[in-house]
């Protein structure tokens, strides 16, 4: 009896804790989302009153991208970063995400980008909830639960739908799974966040269905067909947005230039279409879909405008555009099928949202909160069919697949929508490609498919100007701009050359290195043929190479940091370019490049000539190039350190000239 009482007290204490923290999250998130929604109203009114503001959209994009490059770090990943943290990945959500996405979204809408607001609300909610967890020093599991409450509160505050916000926070992180242990803080935060927006005078849009579809077998079939269309258009929207992000990122390495080009394209589209209905939130299109007729091409134009806006680095959500796409498509299908365009517009709004976010139950509840319970059976059928029709795609690439949508489809454990899409892409072999010049239309670079470890390529071209770039993830700018831990960052590809290019790919900050093939010519296009090579044929060569290393290389044994003996040594070097072949076995070592510090009279400053200060060398053979400079008249030094506490590591090394470098030309 006593043990049962203690258990009840612990449960009560835990529940009370979640309620209190949920209230705290709701207060903060509701307050900042109220300010955001008010700012969005002001931005929209000013854009409508001053049509010339759209001509500053490219500059607004440059400014927003500049902020994210300089200050954002991982904030540019947006909602995907929050989902990664919920799914137990070791990532940090910076508090700066909230003000950055707030400002970025308001500027996008002020100057005429086509985006939504849900993404902003959820990102602000997630970053604030994670900050509260850090301040209160909550456990990892509690932090995850409170983060989900931030998602619920942000969604509820933006749309005025606390029930849907609660379930959205529980459902969105993983397909086929709900985190019921989080329901109390999610519900608390959602209701408090929504109440705060109401108290602060924020009004939400709710729509009235003009006429309902009568239940009949023929109408049920029509609803099913329409729901399939809603699932397919959500699939198209998701794939198009992801593809444009990839295309623009590979074509324009400079994020600010990418956003500038995106802004120019939006302006040209506005004048091409002859309408401004598709910029901003486009809420009038939803009202027109519910009350009358809209253009049969409205859903296509809204899809294109939004995918380009988000694909070129502007900030904002996807959900409100999905509402517009779904409602306009539903209105068109209703007219085509001779059933109520108003009712089918409402079903389209919910169906496209369900397919793109993979949250059928949150969508079902959202439909009830927005339109009422009349026609509830059609609403439920619509959500389920659209969810299954969209397949394993969605707007959140970090969404985990806890259970496949289809029993006949088996997916690897811990798969995400992004990893599934990447595997499908990797199965496509594009050996012949055309890379445009930097000043020409078309892509000037392509990302080569790689996997962890050694990757071998044969690259053939008739022209000069091809550059093979190997970059590691840089957490400061959340882009792949850092030099790789192993090998050279940029290698020129010689024309008509049979050389095998080897890239040792690693994960840095939990992100796999990227390898790009770029045409550096300004105007000339280059035809390229590249092939991945099976590594098994090189086993004999590598074995022979290891024997040569044993005969020619100097050897050092480094003890662990907590053991007696030397754990580091200085690598001999000369002024200028130094090339080494380094063989590491037994563990990872760190190559440090240090400059002289006159304040302490020892070598404690990072390299002053722009060289990487540290490179981690995993077990294997490495080609390393180091540019030795000076600081205060003293030559830089290179040291190799065993970073393990207890393990011994053996390092074999040799300084080589360009002529001798052929010993290691098949490994990076």
UniProtKB/TrEMBL annotation:
MF terms from GO for this chain are: chloride transmembrane transporter activity
Recorded source organism is Pseudobacteroides cellulosolvens ATCC 35603 = DSM 2933
Q: Which PANTHER family match?
A: CHLORIDE CHANNEL PROTEIN CLC-E, CHLORIDE TRANSPORTER
For membrane topology, the record states: Multi-pass membrane protein
Localization in the cell: Membrane
What GO CC terms are in its UniProt record? Answer: membrane
InterPro entries the UniProt entry points to: Cl-channel_core, ClC, ClC-type_chloride_channel
Membrane-spanning intervals of the chain: 50-69, 145-170, 182-204, 216-237, 257-274, 294-314
Source taxonomy? Bacteria, Bacillati, Bacillota, Clostridia, Eubacteriales
* Keywords (A to Z) from UniProt: Membrane, Transmembrane, Transmembrane helix
Protein name, UniProt field: Cl-channel voltage-gated family protein
């Amino acid at each position: 009896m006593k043990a049962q009482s203690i258990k009840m007290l612990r449960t009560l204490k835990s529940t009370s804790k979640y309620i209190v923290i949920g209230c705290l999250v709701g207060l903060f998130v509701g307050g900042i989302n109220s300010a955001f929604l008010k700012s969005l109203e002001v931005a929209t009114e000013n854009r409508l009153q001053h049509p010339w503001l759209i001509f500053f959209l490219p500059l607004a994009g440059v400014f927003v991208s500049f902020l994210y490059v300089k200050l954002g770090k991982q904030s540019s990943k947006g909602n995907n970063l929050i989902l990664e943290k919920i799914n137990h990945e070791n990532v940090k959500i910076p508090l700066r995400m909230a003000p950055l996405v707030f400002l970025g979204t308001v500027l996008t809408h002020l100057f005429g980008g086509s985006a939504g607001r849900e993404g902003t609300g959820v990102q602000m909610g997630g970053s604030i909830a994670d900050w509260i967890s850090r301040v209160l020093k909550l456990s990892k599991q509690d932090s995850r639960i409170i983060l989900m409450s931030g998602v619920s509160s942000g969604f509820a505050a933006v749309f005025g739908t606390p029930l849907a916000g609660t379930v959205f926070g529980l459902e969105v992180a993983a397909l086929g799974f709900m985190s019921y242990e989080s329901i109390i803080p999610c519900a608390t935060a959602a209701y408090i966040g929504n109440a705060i927006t109401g108290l602060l005078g924020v009004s939400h849009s709710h729509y009235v269905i003009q006429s309902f579809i009568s239940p009949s077998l023929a109408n049920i079939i029509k609803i099913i067909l329409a729901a399939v269309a809603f699932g397919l258009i959500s699939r198209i929207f998701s794939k198009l947005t992801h593809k444009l992000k990839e295309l623009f990122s590979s074509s324009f390495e400079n994020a600010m230039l990418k956003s500038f080009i995106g802004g120019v394209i939006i302006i040209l589209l506005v004048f091409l279409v002859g309408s401004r209905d598709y910029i901003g939130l486009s809420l009038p299109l939803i009202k027109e879909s519910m009350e009358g007729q809209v253009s049969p091409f409205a859903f296509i134009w809204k899809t294109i405008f939004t995918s380009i806006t988000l694909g070129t680095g502007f900030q904002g959500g996807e959900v409100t555009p999905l509402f517009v796409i779904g409602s306009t498509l539903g209105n068109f299908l209703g007219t085509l099928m001779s059933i109520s365009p108003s009712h089918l517009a409402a079903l389209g709004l919910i169906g496209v949202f369900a397919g793109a976010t993979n949250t059928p139950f949150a969508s079902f509840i959202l439909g009830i909160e927005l339109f009422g319970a009349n026609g509830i059976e059609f609403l439920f059928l619509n959500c389920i069919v659209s969810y299954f029709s969209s397949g394993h795609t969605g707007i959140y690439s970090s969404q985990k697949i806890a259970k496949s949508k289809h029993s006949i489809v088996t997916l690897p454990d811990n798969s995400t929508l992004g990893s599934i899409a990447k595997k499908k892409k990797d199965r496509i072999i594009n050996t012949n490609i055309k890379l445009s010049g930097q000043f020409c239309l078309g892509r000037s670079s392509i990302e080569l498919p790689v996997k962890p470890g050694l990757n071998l390529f044969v690259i053939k071209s008739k022209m000069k100007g091809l550059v093979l770039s190997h970059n590691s993830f840089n957490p400061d700018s959340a882009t792949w701009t850092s030099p790789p831990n192993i090998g050279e960052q940029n290698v020129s590809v010689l024309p008509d050359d049979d050389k095998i290019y080897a890239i040792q790919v690693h994960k840095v900050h939990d992100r796999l290195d990227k390898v790009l093939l770029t045409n550096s010519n300004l105007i000339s296009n280059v035809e390229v043929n590249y092939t991945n090579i099976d590594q098994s044929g090189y086993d004999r060569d590598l074995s022979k190479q290891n024997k040569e290393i044993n005969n020619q290389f100097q050897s050092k044994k480094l003890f662990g940091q907590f053991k007696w003996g030397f754990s580091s040594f200085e690598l001999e070097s000369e002024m200028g370019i130094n090339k080494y072949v380094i063989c590491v076995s037994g563990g990872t070592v760190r190559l440090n490049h240090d400059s002289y510090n006159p304040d302490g009279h020892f070598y404690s400053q990072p390299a002053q000539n722009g060289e990487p200060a540290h490179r981690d060398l995993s077990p294997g053979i490495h080609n390393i190039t180091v540019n030795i400079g000076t600081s205060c008249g003293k030559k830089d030094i290179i040291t190799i350190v065993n970073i393990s506490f207890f393990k011994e590591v053996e390092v074999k090394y040799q300084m080589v000239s360009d002529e001798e470098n052929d010993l290691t030309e098949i490994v990076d």
